[in-house]
Specification:
The relative contact order is 0.18. The protein has about 325 residues and is of the alpha/beta class. The chain contains 12 helices and 8 strands. The protein has an 8-stranded mixed sheet, sandwiched between helices. Helix 2 (about 20-35) runs antiparallel to helix 3.
Length: about 325
């Protein structure tokens, strides 16, 4: 089968999602099960134990309080809810909460019409899987029949340029670089210019994940964004923040850092398969009201998925 034409069925994707969330499900459902063990109905004591289970699953305090308030309202409204109904009700309330938080719920890896090149500026700290996510995203776009250029604007980290170049070769993408220790803003500007001149569909620009201070980070990202805007009016069309789910609440701190530094418009959550802290997806969505577009549920290239609220929550509660 052609490398770029491999199509994964809905069933395969759901299987990957279920397997990718296995550690989170085991931990999350285990804590919920212990909270309601031996109970015949959902009362305040049960809700207190569920609250603790959610917090210790890295959902986060603020989001947990909202979920518990919703459950309390349901208990008060429906008068009597037994524990067998609890999972269904929690699923409904969490799906509704995510829907209120501008969740993307994309159908595939296509791009909006009328935006060519579609420019994505990718931000995030080193080690979260940023460059790998770019490579996987490029592969998905190629599967949609789109041409892609990768711009190596992370010019500070050793081997960052080489790593991105390897991904471009593996995926059959265009690649633009000015080498190490060059001006990242200039790389971003010229990558977009290259995409326009070569009629490329998608330009994905990698950026540095670590600068000495928050002020430096803000200045650098702002400078890169302005350079992209100068190269193409209306770009970047997406500022994608990559977060590592396995870091739990630290991912929320990183999100605060980067949303202060630049106008983040979407989020990718990586490494969900390697952690029991997948509940942080709910916290990130709720606290920042920024669409979660992509989730990583495995190491192989096809296991970057578009985020779907119902599928994610169903998988989370699927024993």
């Amino acid at each position: 089968m052609n490398f770029f034409k491999k199509i994964f069925s809905k069933e395969e994707k759901k299987k990957d999602l279920n397997q990718g969330l296995e550690k989170t499900k085991s931990s999350f459902l285990g804590k919920i099960s212990r909270a309601i063990a031996g109970k015949s109905k959902v009362d305040h004591d049960t809700l207190d134990e569920i609250e603790e289970a959610l917090i210790t699953s890295d959902v986060g305090l603020e989001t947990t309080v909202k979920i518990i308030e919703r459950l309390e309202a349901r208990v008060a409204k429906d008068k009597y809810i037994n524990t067998e109904e609890l999972n269904r009700i929690m699923k409904e309330e969490i799906i509704e909460l995510l829907a209120e938080n501008n969740t993307a719920d994309l159908k595939d890896f296509s791009i909006p019409p009328g935006k060519k090149p579609y420019v994505i500026m990718v931000v995030g700290v080193n080690g979260v899987g940023k460059t790998t996510t770019i490579g996987k995203l490029a592969w998905q776009f190629k599967n949609q029949g789109l041409s892609v250029v990768l711009g190596a604007a992370d010019t500070f980290r050793a081997a960052a340029v080489d790593q991105l170049k390897i991904w471009s070769e593996r995926n059959g993408c265009h690649f633009y670089s000015k080498g190490m220790h060059t001006d990242p803003a200039a790389v971003a500007y010229e990558t977009v210019k290259y995409a326009v001149e070569h009629s490329v569909d998608v330009a994905i620009i990698d950026t540095a994940g670590r600068l000495h201070t928050k002020i430096n980070l803000m200045r650098e990202l702002s400078k890169i964004k302005r350079s992209i805007e100068k190269s193409l009016v209306g770009a970047p069309h997406d500022v994608l923040l990559v977060l590592d789910a396995s870091t739990g609440q630290n991912a929320i701190e990183q999100a605060k850092h980067f949303t202060d530094a630049t106008e983040v418009s979407s989020i990718a959550m990586t490494k969900l398969d390697g952690t029991a802290k997948g509940g942080v997806v709910l916290g990130v969505s709720d606290q920042f009201k920024i669409p979660i577009k992509y989730i990583g549920v495995g190491e192989s290239i096809e296991k970057l998925q578009v985020f779907n609220t119902a599928d994610f929550v169903d998988s989370l509660f699927n024993e």
